[in-house]
Structures are given as structure tokens and as C-alpha cells.
Write a structure and sequence with these properties.
five-stranded antiparallel β-sheet, alpha+beta, three-stranded mixed β-sheet, 12 strands, Creatine Amidinohydrolase
Length: 244
């Protein structure tokens, strides 16, 4: 990506962060995913328009302005990696998998977090920590010259070490820019070498029906010696609990 392209992706990350912050703030027991997503997206969009003004262009087929929501990954359906929004009402004990973004002149970012309605159980805390650790494995593996397949393989080795493969459903991540999902992919079948200036999502996840779904997604930039996290939302479970 060029410096101009990276500037647009950084701007996207900033407004996705705001939308997600509002999503977390407004989520509460008894509310529905539809009303919370609408409130967060509308408020974030109005703030963005007050800041950028009428020059803003989304250049997107899907949305204009920042948005955040759950896409139905709530409660039992959190264990479905790509569930469907169903106007679910939040309940105590729900595991929540979020998604936030904001198109900027055609460029996109991705921010996802796993949150909890009330304090998670010990088993959920363990699975959450495994998810975070798997993402860290990917972060440490990513640098120029490393193959995309090698990043995914490093994550899979972590899964295998802790007998987590039964809860694996998808590859580690994908490039992002003009397309929300674009190649190359952090997948064992993609031997593309990472290069400085590439931008990827990193999102290994675990999905266990009796516990929920566990996935963070961060947008990262390949630098000369590793990565830079372009998204910066809190990542620890203690910071991602909805009060009951």
C-alpha cells in the first residue's frame, strides 16, 4: 500500500474504533442487537461528518460511514463464525463477537472483539486467553519474507499443542484494502511472501458451542521488521465486559 492508501486505512481504523466504543457503551441486557448497532453507527457517523464534512466519500457498495454490530454472533450463535443478524435481545451470560469498520474513499479496515455480558466463566476465560495467544503467535510470525502459509501454520501448531483443533473453523486472516476480503490470505494454501506495506487482518478464532465463539480481529501493517497494529481497541477480557 502507498502512503496515501495507508492514511485512508488509518482513518478507517479511527472511526471504526469510535463505532465499536459506542457499541460497547450502549449494549445492555434487554436491548436488541438492531437498536444498539443503529445507535452506535448513527452516532459515530454524525461525529465523523462533523469532523470531515461534506468532502467525505465512502466509495462502498455496502455502507457509508462507520458501523458496528454483532451479525448475530450472540449467545449460542457466537459459536457460528459467520452468523446472521436476527434482532437478538441481549441476556446475562451472552458471549458476543463484534465487528466494526468504516469505508474511506474505498479503503477498509476490520476491528472485531469478543465481549461478555457479565463476567465470563473460568472455562470461557481460558478459551479467551487461548484466542489471544493464538493471535499473538500470528503477530510474532509476521515479517517481510515470511510466507502467508507459514503464519497460518504457526497458529495451527499452537492449536495442535493445546488440543484446540476441534474448535478451529477458518484460516488466520486475509489482506484488506479496496476489498473487505482480498488476497493474499494467511492460509496454508497461500505461499505469497509478506512484504513491507502490505495490510492484513489477523483473526484466528475458536468456536465451542457450549462456551461460545472467541475471535478478535485486528488490522495490521507489515513493517520493515515486523508489524504495526493499526487497530487499537482494548484486547483483554476485563475491558470487554458488559455490566449486568
Amino acid at each position: 500500500k502507498s502512503a496515501a492508501e495507508l492514511a485512508l486505512i488509518r482513518e478507517s481504523c479511527k472511526w471504526a474504533h469510535l463505532a465499536h466504543m459506542l457499541l460497547q457503551r450502549y449494549t445492555a441486557v434487554g436491548k436488541t442487537e438492531t437498536e444498539v448497532s443503529l445507535q452506535a453507527g448513527q452516532e459515530a457517523t454524525l461525529a465523523m461528518m462533523d469532523t470531515i464534512g461534506p468532502l467525505y466519500r465512502a466509495q462502498s457498495m455496502w455502507s457509508s460511514g462507520p458501523s458496528a454490530g454483532y451479525r448475530g454472533q450472540i449467545g449460542r450463535n457466537a459459536a457460528i463464525p459467520h452468523a446472521l443478524a436476527n434482532n437478538v435481545t441481549f441476556q446475562p451470560g451472552d458471549v458476543l463477537v463484534t465487528g466494526a469498520g468504516c469505508p474511506m474513499w474505498g479503503y477498509n479496515s476490520e476491528l472485531e472483539r469478543t465481549m461478555f455480558v457479565g463476567e465470563p466463566s473460568k472455562d470461557q476465560q481460558v478459551m479467551f486467553q487461548h484466542m489471544k495467544a493464538a493471535q499473538e503467535v500470528a503477530f510474532w510470525a509476521m515479517k517481510p519474507g515470511v510466507k502467508c502459509s507459514e503464519v497460518d501454520q504457526a497458529v495451527r501448531e499452537y492449536y495442535q499443542k493445546y488440543d484446540l483443533m476441534p474448535y478451529w473453523k477458518h484460516h488466520t486472516g486475509h489482506a484488506i484494502g479496496l476489498r473487505y476480503h482480498e488476497g493474499p490470505f494467511l492460509d496454508t494454501g497461500d505461499d505469497t511472501a509478506l512484504e513491507e506495506g502490505m495490510v492484513f487482518t489477523v483473526e484466528p478464532g475458536f468456536y465451542k458451542p457450549e462456551l461460545g465463539g472467541f475471535r478478535h480481529s485486528d488490522t495490521v501493517l507489515i513493517t520493515s521488521d515486523g508489524i504495526e497494529l493499526m487497530t487499537y481497541y482494548p484486547r483483554n477480557w476485563e475491558q470487554l465486559v458488559i455490566p449486568v
